[in-house]
Amino acid sequence: PGGAPVQARLVTVALLVPAGAAHAYPQFQLSRDQTCTGCHITPAGGGILNENGYSVAEGISQFGHKPEFMYGKLLGDSGPLSLGGDLRAAGGYFKYGGPDDAAFYAFPMQLELNAHLKLGSGLSFYATGGFRPAEETNENATRVWSREHYLMWQSKTDENYATYVRVGRFMPVFGLRFAEHPLYVRRFGGTQLFSENYGVSVSHVAEKFEIHGSAFMEDYLLDPVEHANGAAVYGEYRVLPTLSFGGGAMFKSFTD
Predict the structure, then answer these.
(1) How do the pLDDT tens digits run along the chain, 256 residues long?
(2) 194-226: string of b/e by CB count within 10 Å (b at 16+)?
């Protein structure tokens, strides 16, 4: 009754990867492209790839086709607008009860479209939109939504190492993000699914280190997964090509 509950986390980790043959794709070795910006547009990774990311995707693809959206036929190889998307689905044949009690079920797990528009002078707009589980009592307005949409400024356009400033709706940068993509990590530090909030983030990515600071607030437009305001900071330092240290802290003040 005396005030809103407060939660704080402090995480410190050390990552040691033995030198030698990688068990994932060679392009994902820790000794190469150690930052998310080596392949992705955003400093937190995920979403649309940059030119180097497209080259890696083409190199490891099953059939060797162009990895750009619609094989590059819709927008061409270059331009101010980039598109992408994520589609996941699941299905199966279920048998229950008697011999006639069986059916095939299929349902979508993720159906989203990503868009990145360059506005000039290092400024761009990024958005992710698609279907989501509808909120109870607000189904019609919440079946389709944009869980990410923000303005981003990049100090050095089209370069991996730069300073990034984002304002809008996104997930706070928190948690280890390994270059070996098949390795499972809690990329967002245990933050719940669909808990992107409005806020501001400043990231600086360099060859030897990177640091990310985020401040966020409760989403007052939709009923959020978490009713909280707070801040997060995360950093990594690459001592050697095969040795990195990372640490982060998150503070939340719950409003309900």
Answers:
(1) 445 566 665 554 444 444 444 344 544 544 456 788 888 899 988 888 888 888 777 777 767 777 777 776 777 667 789 898 888 888 887 777 666 777 888 877 788 899 999 999 999 999 999 887 777 777 777 788 898 999 999 999 888 899 999 999 998 888 776 666 656 565 666 667 777 889 999 999 998 999 999 999 988 777 777 788 999 999 999 888 777 888 999 998 988 7
(2) ebbbbbbbbbbbeeebbbbbbbbebbeeeebeb
**Nearest CA among 249, 172, 181 for reference residue 218:** 172
Token code pair at residue 96: 């229950």
The angle formed by the CA atoms of residues 77, 83 and 85, to the nearest 5 degrees, is 130
In 3D space, the residue among 172, 61, 168 whose CA is nearest the CA of residue 116 turns out to be 168
Residue 221 belongs to what H/E stretch?
none
Instruction: Name the token pair of 75.
Output: 């927008």
Identity (one letter) of the amino acid at 91? G
Q: Which two tokens stand for residue 146?
A: 């944009």
